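> forwarded from #structure-qc
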């Protein structure tokens, strides 16, 4: 059975979550109707996607109990000599919805084409070494630099959205913070904002985006409201004003504020104030509020991270490097102007 194109996003979503351990062997996946709603599919299209995954050996259909993950979902993985470890989050992709499964699906697709095995690693970071012991390269899909001072493995590494390269051991693939900041400056200028406040979480990769934007914004003659490093739902730290602009260094951060605003005040934060996010997560997660964002191409990030890992696997002496990719400003209609 050929891969049904209309169900491609659903297939990637399920495949990535099986690989990362969200859906464990024998566990039930969401119902067909739930998948229909999430991915805006017809019943037939969703069923075709599930049938494709069953044919690949990833899922199993049961007449009375629905569809479950097969007892050995990795059986069809290549048995080639090369092996790349992939560190997802602590056993779940739900801490980073949308972004990771798009990138991971591209990594899986390229690995299958090149006959390279993948090993999923997650959990407490000081337990990763035994899991990754036989890997020739490692792709890191979590903010490892915020959780440990040194890498818990010796293989060459490629990190997605990291700040620290661990002394030259890790190549880094990230949205370009400089061109992203320039797009953000232009966005707020077009919206005729004189003052912009940046809201960020504590991670260094996000603080770095904040600092670059604030510098370029001041250079352009704008007034800065400062950089606020605050809890997701602490609205008291930011008394939003309609005449000002607000840059969030990740869509996830903006979404948490939007949820807190909706619970406290009702209505849409993005419809009321001039906001901009970074990374494009709100375009990929149906539950997210719609707001302007500088979006990364997450399939491309996954492909480039895999190619860099393969290059360093083949040549362990290849130096680590930073690969910055341009984002694209996406503005939904009917937003606050």
């Amino acid at each position: 059975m050929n891969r049904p194109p209309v169900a491609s996003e659903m297939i990637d979503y399920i495949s990535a979550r099986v690989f990362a351990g969200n859906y464990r062997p024998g566990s039930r996946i969401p119902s067909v109707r739930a998948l229909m709603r999430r991915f805006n599919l017809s019943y037939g299209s969703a069923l075709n996607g599930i049938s494709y995954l069953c044919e690949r050996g990833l899922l199993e259909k049961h007449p009375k109990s629905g569809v479950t993950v097969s007892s050995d979902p990795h059986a069809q993985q290549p048995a080639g000599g090369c092996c790349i470890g992939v560190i997802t989050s602590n056993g779940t992709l739900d801490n980073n919805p949308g972004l990771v499964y798009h990138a991971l699906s591209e990594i899986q697709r390229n690995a299958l084409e090149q006959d390279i095995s993948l090993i999923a690693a997650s959990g407490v970071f000081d337990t990763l070494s035994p899991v990754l012991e036989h890997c020739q390269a490692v792709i890191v899909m979590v903010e490892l630099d915020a959780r440990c001072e040194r890498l818990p493995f010796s293989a060459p590494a490629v990190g997605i959205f990291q700040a620290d390269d661990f002394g030259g051991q890790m190549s880094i693939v990230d949205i370009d913070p400089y061109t992203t900041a320039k797009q953000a400056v232009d966005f707020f200028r077009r919206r005729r904002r004189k003052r912009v406040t940046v809201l960020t979480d504590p991670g260094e990769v996000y603080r770095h985006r904040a600092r670059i934007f604030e510098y370029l914004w001041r250079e352009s003659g704008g007034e800065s409201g400062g950089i606020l490093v605050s809890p997701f739902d602490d609205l008291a730290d930011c008394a939003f004003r309609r005449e000002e602009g607000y840059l969030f260094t990740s869509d996830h951060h903006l979404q948490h504020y939007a949820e807190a605003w909706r619970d406290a005040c009702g209505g849409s934060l993005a419809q009321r104030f001039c906001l901009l996010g970074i990374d494009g997560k709100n375009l990929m997660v149906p539950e997210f509020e719609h707001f302007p964002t500088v979006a990364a191409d997450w399939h491309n990030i996954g492909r480039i991270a895999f190619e860099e890992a393969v290059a360093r696997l083949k040549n362990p002496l290849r130096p680590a490097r930073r690969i910055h990719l341009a984002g694209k400003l996406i503005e939904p209609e009917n937003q606050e102007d």
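QC bot note: Confidence is low (pLDDT under 50) at residues 91-95. The radius of gyration is 21 Å.
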